[in-house]
Design brief:
Two copies of one chain form a homodimer. The first copy, chain A, is an alpha/beta fold. Chain A contains 14 helices and 20 strands. In chain A, the strands form six sheets. A six-stranded mixed beta sheet of chain A has the order 1-2-6-3-7-18, sandwiched between helices. Chain A has a four-stranded antiparallel beta sheet with strand order 12-14-10-15.
Chain lengths: ~475, ~475
């Protein structure tokens, strides 16, 4: 292991340059305009795997963007780790809020990242974190120190709901046979407070359209006489939360598993400062469901948020128009045992039922995903915990996260495998936002920690 | 007058072609990108006035777009009619809903316009209606039949609140001295139900911005923990109307003059079919303030409508983001004696007061305008009524309109003059909407009717 770590130390500059090159390809999966770049990124990832020493590397075509597969089987009697990651990224807009172009990475220091952070779309989510595995693998291979088998499955549609991954997994049970799935697409509490995500929220995402009159109208002549789709949409959205910020969709909470008081007390031990939280976001107070703390609201409770809204005249100046249509994108984060398909149905039925006379409503479901929990007594979790303890010098805290990686539940269903979420990002890394970044410290810490996971996972399996 | 009408008949093709040329210049005053075209339109209007026989024609520069002035003084002892109109137009968007390009006028028939209608932005509002006056003037001049003095004041900022017209009027009291102001920028009930607008609503227009966290956030990590500016904006907008669709801004109705039961009975005599209204708009019901009929809601009652809303991710697909900011454009139509400045203040104070902890609100007032009422016993109204009766064969109905022409109240204050609103458009002409049009019948009916107004206004003044 000394050789591996020394190799990593020696090659830091190159490891960083290679990541910057990868970040320069704008692999925005949500926008068809970037299609060529997304394919180019897949090819680049495949080449990186080959260069690192992977075998059977293949760009597996799907109905959408391809999945990059590669493996290194050293001994079929040894355990196999299946590494999952994604090479696609979120759209960069609003681009005007970036301080550097989103696909021209720069490194600069921040108060949280005194050693510098890489600013670029995808730096943390997930190119940077995915690439840590490629480099850690390279370090182990080049030093003849790979302790077990490894398989890579890197997809290009995570940011649009992994629409074709399920089919791929279903059709490749044998090829994907493994003992654990390892993913770095989450975060830690702080650079000096390592943590491992043990729970993920599910997701239901819908787009709604409210139609009033059949054409845009002059608000002077028709104002006050007809249902204005924007006002109605606002009213319908407002009605989705009550005065305690409970979600009002009938049946929404029916399957939510409430944590015991003991579990909540355990959770409350993770450090959290409301003052620091508010200061970082420049807000004077938090807001959320009555009866729960902010960390609880963001992890063990389901939520409903409007992610986008539009309608009418949004240009410069004033236009006195009543729009014919108004739109919103709405997502719900789900917790065990809420089922995304069932929740989407509840939403559609409720939203249609509250549309007033004079309007029509159309709800289009986008992707969804099931919530998931990783048990902390599994071999995978234990190996990860030991690995973090080794490189950070302290035992990591298990935390439930508010985010969603819907494929974790799918992996369990299809492959019968638990997923270990070894994330090295920070909440402040602004993923999905302008100025996304990833600490240089975090990038290398990930590359250093991953080989220890391989080592301990192998050892614990042998024991 | 026979000569005048014969001249109009003879020149119909040319009158139409000249209007189409004027409509081809995209004079969108709200968007700085069209600045050159707006100036070009002013020059075109000035040239048309000169060609028609106007004197002292001048393109009067202002701090914004110029005002075109021209006059023909035949005898200072005769009455003077001041014609007002505007050569600027609303933005054309959403452009994808136009069946022809907005600035490439075409003529086609519709069920309401079997003789054809001119489809183009500004066809009705107000290039078409303004140009009727230029052509009617030409017909009177060329046949030595102008019965009294006339002055033209055609501005280029009506669609953005006539911001510089007030200054111009204040500085030109002597030049603008007249006996009545004549404006064609309103509509009639139907081509076989002539009507004259006797009341206009005022306007308060504001843009609101709700800020939550200082940057866009990942909805998985922060959803449910912080105030989401879009959800909050929706809630704030929803709260502006109560369950009876009364506006909840404290003090909003304090100065509203309620009509007497007699006045409301008189109003109710104007033909109105809710069925036809709903069918035309493809809605299953109307919506509005409890206790008032649809025509009342659209004319004698103040209203509040969102004209535009935007925030977050509005592109293709799904993005799980909590936006840092959300925006809306909101307009309020006002009735006598509501004061737009006072109402705007009430709105700002109320909107700021309802912003919850965790958010900040900024309200930017756009333009406003006072409501106005034209008495039907004035010489101007009587002359207009006689003129319509002559050309339509039936007496026009006086109606209160829901629209706003804020400068009408300003004219009365500054110049002490009442305005006669001789409009020839129809509600169905889709002004401010895609596929705005103006009936060919209406265009020529306007040109034919205006000379009669001149005749009767002169005669009634002599009497």
């Amino acid at each position: 292991m000394e050789l591996v770590q020394a190799y990593i130390s020696r090659n830091k500059d190159r490891f960083l340059d290679e990541l910057l090159d990868l970040l320069r390809i704008p692999s925005v999966s949500a926008d068809p305009a970037y299609s060529e770049s997304v394919h180019k990124t897949a090819a680049s990832v495949a080449q990186s795997l080959k260069n690192a020493g992977a075998e059977s590397v293949e760009i597996c075509e799907t109905a959408g963007y391809p999945i990059v597969y590669g493996e290194k089987i050293i001994d079929s009697s040894l355990p196999t780790i299946l590494v999952y990651g994604h090479y696609d990224v979120q759209p960069a807009d609003p681009i005007e809020l970036w301080t550097n172009p989103a696909f021209e990475p720069i490194i600069k220091t921040t108060p949280i990242h005194p050693e510098g952070a890489i600013f670029a779309r995808g730096a943390c989510d997930d190119k940077g974190q995915m690439f840590m595995h490629v480099k850690a693998f390279e370090a182990m291979i080049k030093n003849n120190a790979l302790p077990c088998n490894v398989k890579f499955m890197i997809e290009g549609e995570e940011e649009v709901g992994s629409v074709n991954l399920g089919v791929f997994v279903k059709n490749n049970h044998a090829r994907l046979k493994a003992d654990v799935i390892l993913v770095s697409d989450t975060g830690m509490l702080a650079n000096d407070v390592p943590s491992i995500t043990t729970g993920l929220r599910g997701l239901s995402y819908v787009e709604v359209e409210v139609t009033g009159p059949n054409r845009d109208l002059h608000s002077g002549l028709y104002g006050g006489c007809v249902a204005n789709p924007i006002n109605i949409l606002a009213k319908m959205i407002a009605s989705l939360h009550d005065e305690n910020n409970h979600i009002t969709i009938p049946g929404f909470y029916d399957k939510v598993i409430e944590l015991t008081d003991g579990e909540r007390r355990e959770m409350a031990k993770a450090p959290f400062s409301k003052e620091a939280y508010c200061t970082a976001l420049d807000i004077d107070d938090v807001m959320g469901e009555a009866g729960y703390s902010t960390p609880e609201r963001g992890s063990i409770r389901p939520t409903l948020d409007v992610n986008g809204i539009w309608g009418g005249y949004t240009g410069e100046g004033a236009k006195t128009v009543i729009a014919s249509k108004a739109y919103a994108k709405i997502s719900m984060r789900l917790v065990p045992d809420q089922d995304p398909i069932e929740i989407t149905e509840l939403f559609v039925n409720h939203f249609e039922s509250i549309a007033p006379a004079g309007t029509r409503v159309k709800v289009t479901p986008h992707h969804g995903g099931e919530p998931a929990v990783t048990p902390i007594d599994s071999v995978g979790y234990k190996a990860a915990s030991l690995a973090y303890e080794k490189t950070f010098g302290k035992k990591p805290i298990p935390v439930r996260s508010g985010g969603s990686i819907p494929i974790v539940a799918m992996f369990e269903k299809e492959l019968g495998l638990k997923t270990v979420l070894m994330g090295f990002g920070l909440d402040s890394d602004a993923i999905h936002s302008p100025n996304e970044h990833f600490g240089v410290f975090n990038y290398f810490k990930g590359i250093e920690t991953i080989p220890y996971f391989f080592k301990y996972f192998n050892e614990l399996n042998q024991a």
